[in-house]
Amino acid sequence: MVRRNILAGALLCGAATAWSAPARATGFTEIGQDIERREKWGAEVSGYLRTRGEMLGNLDLDRGLTPSGDPLFPVSASEPRRQMLTHWDMRLRADLAFYAPGNVVAVKARLDALDNLALGSAPEGIPSATVSQRAGGDLLRLKRAWGEALLPFGLVAAGRMGNSWGLGMLANGGDCLDCDSGDAADRVAFLTPLFGHIFAVAYDFSATGPQVPRRASNRTLGVEPSTDVRSVTFAALRHHDEAARARRAKAGKTTLDYGAYVSHRWQESDVPSSYLPVAQPNALSATDVMARGYRATAVDGWARVTSGLLRIEAEVAWLGATVDQPSLLPGLLYKEPAKSSQFGAALESDLGRAEGLVGGGVDMGFASGDPAPGFGAVVKPGAAAPKPGDLDGAQANPPFDNRADNFRFHPDYRVDRILFREIIGTVTDAAYVRPHVRVTPIRWRSAEITASLAVVGSSAVRAASTPNGKAPLGIEIDPTILYTSRGGFLAALEHAVLFPLAGLDNDAQGLSAKPAQLLRLRLQYVF
Questions:
Q1: β-strands 154-162, 211-213: how paired?
Q2: Lowest-confidence range among 171-185, 207-221, 409-423?
Q3: Looking at the predicted structure, is the pLDDT value of residue 18 above 60?
Q4: What pLDDT score does 6 carry?
Q5: Residue 317: CA atoms inside 13 Å, Cβ hemisphere, count?
Q6: Are 90 and 113 in contact (CB under 8 A)?
Q7: Exposure of 228 by Cβ count < 10 A (0-12 exposed, 13-18 middle, 19+ buried)?
Q8: pTM of structure
């Protein structure tokens, strides 16, 4: 039992924060962090209620339509020149954790209700006469469910759990208070402490082929194993939780945390009709199965240096993939494979004590690009190839273009409020620099008010990807006033002004992109 307790202590190194949810299991640093000795079974619930209101001003930049006939941002159908749109949504999140007696087993889950639901979007009956809102089957979602068991030689976790790493630039569990999505993996993972580090291996059921029902049972069976997509990840890291870093900083010590992982994914065959739109559903046959030959590898490194006055954190990643047969149509085969080589990097810095009056720093990021038109931020299978001047579109177009080299940051890794978050969709095919400063002029015993300002300058890596064929994208100014109560209430008033540069103009129509604005009020009730 003593050996088991020592092992548990070595594994319990989660990145807890003042707003953390203990059941979230976002990454290898959090699995098993809360398994401790208990005399009887226990349960914990944590989470938040979030509601956000927004005013969006001229996010289409008044620069006309792209060659494909689309604005850069949705506009009013009846008044396309309307400058202001509004939106309000909400989410209720609950992370649940159940603990067996002893210090061995925990079962956890995440529930989201009314997830990013636009308020007023489900009126009961005629909209003008509604007195209630409809309840729907998709308004309550079980997003994660997994178990953790502490063994004498390590810890085993299995089920659907969060997937995050480092800064969250590439893999992000979506646990921040303003996050909208988040990665989850159907995973079996094993972790063990060794030589002052944590070593982990994970096997993911990334996708399982078409399912057919089993006879006299409510279970299904995948009958085309060659179409399964599987992933294997090996990771090693050294990590101190926030409390340990605070103790070391108070003692005048600098803390170094770091880690690296390599992940490999593969698929032998594919059934495109199982995920592409079809005229009518049809029974699976041999003609639906086609060779794919997909192989992809990701390598990621992360490091963080913290002291009482400084935090510097960086992450770099490389992704490479080969698809021997990129065609999506059985019977129509391409002679050449499709390939990709993508690189991304992000740096964050912060100077000043967390409890101090003033702080600030400089953040930077880079995402490799591709010369194809459009940024390739949100690509839908089967969509038409983009035209020069389009905002988005597939970066590979076999058999004419067999490469897709644009790295995409996770959409929940936020660097601004308008350009990358709302217009493009994420950081891709771009570089940015983001100086920021904050001041906390008011502190009470139970609450504080912080004002902050960030300025984001961005440029495309490949000028051919922008709507105007020029690299400069924009300068964005993002001020914030934040009220934080230690009792669990948070209110943020966020503003943003984007001054678009030449890359967003429309020289073909003689139109220059005009500034855009955003105002957001976010209210958060944390429990």
A1: unpaired
A2: 207-221
A3: no
A4: 29
A5: 28
A6: no
A7: middle
A8: 0.90
Alpha-carbon dihedral sign for residues 424, 426, 432, 437: positive
Tell me the C-alpha distance between 506 and 503, whole Å: 8
CA angle, residues 390, 391, 397, in degrees to nearest 5:
65
Residue with tokens 């993972």: 189
Give the position of tokens 């909400």.
Answer: 90
Q: What are the two backbone dihedrals, phi and then psi, of residue 55, each rounded to the nearest 5 degrees? A: -120, 120
Q: Is it the case that residue 414 has pLDDT exceeding 50?
A: yes
What is residue 383's DSSP assignment? P
Per the CB < 8 A criterion, the answer to whether 200 and 191 are in contact is: yes
The structure tokens listed for 307 are 């002291």
Q: Which domains does the chain have, with CATH numbers?
A: 2-121+140-273+290-526 (2.40.160.100)
CA dist list (Å): 136 to 92, 131, 281? 15, 16, 25
- Going by their DSSP bridges, the two strands 472-485 and 447-460 should be labelled as antiparallel
Q: How confident is the model over 66-94, as pLDDT tens digits?
A: 999 999 999 998 888 888 999 999 999 99
Pick from 26-40, 236-250, 281-295, 456-470 the range whose average pLDDT is largest.
456-470
Q: Give the lowest-confidence range in 25-34, 252-261, 376-385.
A: 25-34
Residue 421 DSSP SS3:
helix
For residue range 138-147, list pLDDT tens digits in order: 678 999 999 9
Distances (CA, A) of 250 to 14, 15, 387, 518: 20, 18, 57, 40
> What's the per-residue H, E or C state across 397-418?
ECCCECECCCCECCCCCCCCCC
| SS3 category, 154 | strand
| Closest alpha carbon to 22 in 522, 523, 525, 527 | 527
Enter the DSSP assignment of 513: P
Tokens 């597939």 sit at which residue? 394
For residue 432, give both structure tokens.
Answer: 């940015």
Using CA atoms, how far apart are residues 107 and 437, in angstroms rounded to an integer?
Answer: 41
Distance CA 429, CA 460 (A): 6
Q: What is the pLDDT of residue 384?
A: 82
Residue appearing with tokens 């063990």:
192
Cα–Cα dist 182/412, whole Å: 7
DSSP result, 309-376 = SEEEEEEEEEEEEEES----STT---SS-EEEEEEEEEEEEEES-TTSSEEEEEEEEEE---SSSS--
User: Tokens 């490799």 correspond to what residue?
Assistant: 368
CA gap 101, 422 in Å, rounded: 47
- How many CB atoms neighbour CB 18 within 10 A? 9
Q: How far apart are CA 457 and CA 471, in angstroms?
A: 12
Amino acid 212: pLDDT: 86
Residue 25 banded pLDDT, cuts 50, 70, 90: low
Q: Of 376, 406, 401, which Cα lies nearest the Cα of 391? A: 376
Residues 158-210 pLDDT 10s: 999 999 999 999 999 999 999 999 999 999 999 999 998 999 999 999 999 88
The token duo for 433 is 């620099």
